[in-house]
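go over my protein:
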Amino acid sequence: MILDLQKLTPPGRPNWHLVVPNGWAHPYALGRAPRFDVSLDLLREALVGVVAEEPRCHIVGMDKDARQVEFEQKSRLFGFPDRIVVEFVTLGNGASTLAIYSRALKGYWDFGVNRKRVERWLAALPAQIERQREIEAAAL
């Protein structure tokens, strides 16, 4: 595990955003992640596909079970690094969800960049899930 997102205490600076699954009672959560009616593996592949379309973003690490993936994305102007940890959660019955913690590594303010990133990634996931389903169907 890269970070224990269920026990995470974010820094005292307003330069982060945290979205968690509905079942988590997290005092610092700023949003809730939707349920996706896909396996954890397909959700992870879809998110990696979303991230692959982001500029200046790459995978930094993955835990041994591939339940958490850490990404780094650098700002366009100055190249300041942000770190994003995504934890994939199985809900059972072929469904899954995720938690996303996005934070600036430098500076005090992030001007909403982390919130916008998380919202953009979550909004892009349904279309990417459909693309992943099409790829899997074509492979059969």
Q: What stands out?
A: The longest strand covers residues 81-92.
